[in-house]
Amino acid sequence: MTIEHAKRLLNPDRGTMQVIRCTAAVAAIEADVASTRDIELNSLGGGYTSLAG
């Protein structure tokens, strides 16, 4: 690892920070969608187990 590479890891540029933020935002949205889907299934009458039989 070069000194330049180490500096980049310690001080990410704006592009890198944007990618990190976007990744975090997508993860948060996916978690939100998953929990919403679980709530909807549970309101149908007990979630996956009752739907499966």
Overview of this protein structure:
The chain is mainly α. The protein has one domain (12-52). The chain has helices at 3-10, 14-43, 48-52. The longest helix has 30 residues, at 14-43. The radius of gyration is 20 Å and the shape is rod-shaped. The protein starts with a helix and ends with a helix.
Measured by DSSP, the beta-strand proportion falls in under 5%
The number of distinct helices, counting runs of at least 4 residues, comes to 3
Helix content: over 70%
The figure for the number of domains is 1
Cα-based radius of gyration, to the nearest Å: 20 Å
Assembly category: single chain
Mean pLDDT: 74
Runs in which pLDDT lies below 50 for 5 or more consecutive residues are none
Helix and strand run: HHH
The major sheet is characterized as: none
Please report the total strand number as a whole number.
0
Structural shape: rod-shaped
Give the CA-CA distance, first to last residue. Answer: 56 Å
Return the structural class: mainly alpha
Topology:
Blueprint: H1 3-10, H2 14-43, H3 48-52
Short summary:
This protein has 53 residues and is an all-alpha fold. 81% of the residues lie in helices and 0% in strands.
